[in-house]
UniProtKB/TrEMBL annotation:
Residues 202-310 form the Fe2OG dioxygenase domain. Keywords: Iron, Metal-binding, Oxidoreductase. Gene3D superfamilies: B-lactam Antibiotic, Isopenicillin N Synthase, Chain (2.60.120.330). PROSITE patterns: FE2OG_OXY (PS51471). It comes from Chromera velia CCMP2878. Residues 342-361 are annotated as: Disordered. The lineage of its organism: Eukaryota, Sar, Alveolata, Colpodellida, Chromeraceae. This is Fe2OG dioxygenase domain-containing protein. InterPro entries: DIOX_N (IPR026992), IPNS-like_FE2OG_OXY (IPR044861), IPNS-like_sf (IPR027443), Oxoglu/Fe-dep_dioxygenase_dom (IPR005123).
Length: 361
């Protein structure tokens, strides 16, 4: 890791917020996004208009501090949405260890998916293309919401669910507008991604991610979030605390990033990057473990994310590969599999004993 920090290019979205539906996109925003993605694949956006963030941040923190037994009632169980406990994911696909599997990530997460069913157009496509049926079932899987399980504090669960849904809807609207700017910056028609990102077509995924303060030293090369590149079209991320590191183009060095307080961090995903034919890349990023247990960075950390993921039949490139097929392949690669019942019981016991888990699963 570098001792220096990298200030993300800043994009002011104030003029974008004032647009009517068919107004031309602000050239200043389009140019700023293009320059930022040319430079590093990331940007910090200010005046983004997401009013749901403070409420969702507070509610998510309260829910993640609930007992593990309550959170496990909505475990993903091998599905794309639901609760992912500590040690159930390993995103470190870019820095494989010398031997064996990567150590599991030191974080928890709750993922949600689309709150709509496929449109009539998409249903027709799925009837005609049998290879996409499994993909659609995956992308439109139902989210198991904590407030429907009647376990634990109903007020905490209800506020968490409502606030995350609000964040998801707000961020999805912003994501579509940002994608239009991205398309324009690529030199494409600004509506190039519209069908894939439309309100009833997209398969966006929202995530609340919890990095608890560590009470035991991590394993060698273990990270809070392993090194990876995002697979969708665009990612919108909010975090009130530092920790994110990126690899700048042409460098293998990891550099901590800085962004203005209250800003959103956005980055280009692999799908949109492939549309540029090499001009942009989906920049590798990670969140390392704290340097020591008594370091300033060893604190609880809450992150809110929206992954802008297009309709499952949207083509990634000329090869015929679709967004849905690409999404499934990345899900499997990242090892998002919830542990067995016996392992979960051991996890609960460790929590009750105040142990953060030193053995890689």
């Amino acid at each position: 890791m570098s001792s220096k920090t990298f200030e993300l290019p800043v994009v002011d979205l104030a003029s974008l917020q004032k647009l009517m539906d068919r107004d031309p996109l602000p050239a200043s925003v389009v140019d700023a996004i293009g320059q930022a993605f040319d430079r590093c694949g990331f940007a910090a956006v200010i005046n983004h208009g997401l009013k749901s963030i403070p409420r969702c941040e507070t509610a998510s923190t309260a829910w993640f501090r609930s007992p593990l037994t309550e959170k496990m009632s909505v475990a993903a169980n091998g599905e794309p949405f639901g609760y992912f406990p500590m040690f159930s994911e390993s995103l470190n696909s870019l820095e494989p260890p010398p031997e064996g599997l990567p150590a599991p990530d030191l974080r928890e997460a709750f993922s949600m998916g689309p709150q709509h069913d496929p449109t009539a157009r998409l249903q027709q496509v799925l009837q005609e293309k049998t290879n996409l049926r499994e993909v659609a079932d995956f992308c439109f899987s139902k989210t198991p919401w904590p407030d429907q399980m009647q376990k634990g504090d109903c007020r905490v669960a209800g506020e968490f669910c409502d606030s995350l849904k609000c964040f998801y809807e707000e961020a999805s609207c912003l994501g579509q507008n940002l994608l239009r700017c991205v398309a324009k910056a690529m030199g494409l028609d600004e509506r190039h991604f519209d069908q894939g990102s439309a309100a009833q077509e997209h398969t966006n995924s929202g995530r609340a991610i919890w990095y608890p303060k560590l009470t035991e030293a991590p394993l060698p090369n273990q990270a809070r979030c392993g090194a990876h590149a995002d697979s969708g079209a665009l990612t919108l991320l909010y975090c009130g605390a530092p920790g994110l590191e990126i690899q700048l183009p042409g460098s293998s060095e990891w550099v901590p990033v800085e962004s203005p307080p209250g800003s959103l961090v956005i980055n280009i995903g692999e799908l949109a990057a492939r549309a540029t034919k090499g001009r942009w890349r989906s920049t590798p990023h990670r969140v390392p473990a704290p340097s020591s247990l008594d370091s300033a960075e060893n604190v609880d950390r809450l992150v809110l994310v929206l992954f802008v993921i297009l309709a499952p039949d949207f083509p990634v490139d000329e090869s015929g590969l679709t967004q849905g097929e690409y999404t499934i392949s990345r899900f499997k690669r990242w090892g998002r599999v919830v542990k067995s019942e016996g392992e979960t019981e051991n996890e609960i016991a460790r929590e009750q004993n105040g142990v953060n888990g030193k053995t890689a699963k």
